[in-house]
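Handoff note, outgoing to incoming analyst
You'll be picking up this chain. Sequence as last confirmed:
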Amino acid sequence: MALLYRLIVYILLCLLSSSGLHAITASVIIPCYHAHFHYLEKLLDHLSKQTVLPHEVVISLSESHKVAATDIEKLIKTPYPFPVILLPTERQLTSGANRNIASERASGDIFIYQDADDIPHPQRVETISHFLEKYHVPIVLHAWQVDTVDHNITWQQNDKNNLKFYIVRRWAELDNFKTPVTCGNCAIRRETFRTVRWPDRHGGEDTGFNQQVLEIYTLMLIIDTSLLAYGTHYVY
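Most recent structure output, in case you need it:
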């Protein structure tokens, strides 16, 4: 039985593997509201040090009138090794609505979602791009950890070719994972966003989006390594 299962998985991976690989472009999508604006400078610094740089960073900033105009101007004028597109609005928006606005503006082949107050692994863009380039899956999730040292995390260097990963076809299968996975900071293909939009509601929009993608495509890839740190020390 175990041999049959491994054979089925092998056949599935062969079918999912892309032929004629090309370098896909990654847009990092950041939903942000006024109270988290001050995290953006540090986050953009982390993204500037990625082993593979994103094609662009797109930020949807809600309640922008509550941020000092000089701070916004400083961010816009700061040079980064990638284009930074800031989309300010004075409206009060949910994280889902901010993600939708930024995604609609993004031009990359894949969208890597990144909350403003979280810290990316230095290889996050490289690792996610590798899996979405190699396997034709609509969505990728991964594990996360907690930042308890104020951005001074010692990350483990990953060999993307040897990372363990799983194929999931039903949401209930996630209950089998001992390591928690991040839902809001997932990554998708551009065509996935054409089919599924982020729910515009407070609470549960992250899980709701992932569940809807899985319900439609019955396919999800989970990378079994931490590529993101959640900050417990932040004041919301």
